[in-house]
Amino acid sequence: MVVVTARTRDAAVSCPGCGTATAQVHGYHHRTLKDVPVDGRQVVVHLRTRRLVCPARSCPRQTFREQVPGLVERHQRRTVRLVRQISQVAQELCGRAVARLAGVLAVPVSRSTALRRLRRLPLPELTVPRVIGVDDFALRRRHRYATIVIDAETGRRVAVLPGRDAATLESWLRGHPGVEVVCRDGSATYAEAIRRALPDAVQVSDRWHLWRNLCDKVLLEIRAHAGCWATVNPPRRSSRADRPRTPEQGPRATRPRRRPARLFTAPRHGPKHRQTLCPHARTPRFAHRPHLPPDAGRPLPRPPARPPRRRSRDSGYPPAGADPEIGLHRQRQPAGPLPQPGPRRKRPPSRPHVTPVASC
Questions:
Q1: How many structural domains does the chain have?
Q2: Where are the beta strands (DSSP E) in 39-156?
């Protein structure tokens, strides 16, 4: 860091209130300023200024602080050239990008400071171009829209108008005369506003909307004559290989059924029986089975249907999965009706407990 110590000259200064020159010192004031970096190092300036006394008794300001024009402005902690440099970078990048680049340039600033310097920049003088372009854009889709006016020759933004109605554009065109050519889209609202405000101006359709409208018209014509195209250029007859096949008609529909027959009916005699089985076998286990049963390719017989069960004593009730002790008890009981339970024995009445009393 480079530190520079400076002070103002002992010269007369005019009072900002009445303009009377004075050099009478009332006191001193110290200010710390940041300046442009030198050789990649920050520069800090410690400046001592004077507080002067106004000699005019009718002046409302009895004392005032002298300023250094060209070096620093009032209530600022950066020099004029440093503020100008930050403002130019903020105008090109804006926001967090300014903070990152300023850190590399040894001028640490925050994004809020960069945005604040950008807002303080004066607006450039508005010059109405000869050829303008008008279009709308969405600030919030389906809710808020705005109209933008640009210079069609340079692409520079001229104005941004609230809304996209005809009255807003018409009032702006009336307040800025000198437009000769207006490039717009196919909106009838903008066309009516331009016709009212600038009756002598030439309205031109922009290139993108022109190509878009042409493509839409061509597609409508093609769809309208779709039947004519079918008669002029009939579809050719597709060959057998080009015909679409359903899963039931494809070559793989019968392959799983024919494969066992081709495999098990191959010749098994001679020393090359393994070579004859290999082309038909998809897995190695078929090639190493020289002796196959004659009915290997036949489907297995379906097991006979089980007769319906009856809930009786001789039919094996209870079914499988029940308690095995119940089934064993059923087998050991003789056939016949189940024994009925006997009469229930009555419980004798309870007697109260009598404690014997000892004799005296």
A1: 3
A2: 41-53, 63-65, 131-140, 144-151
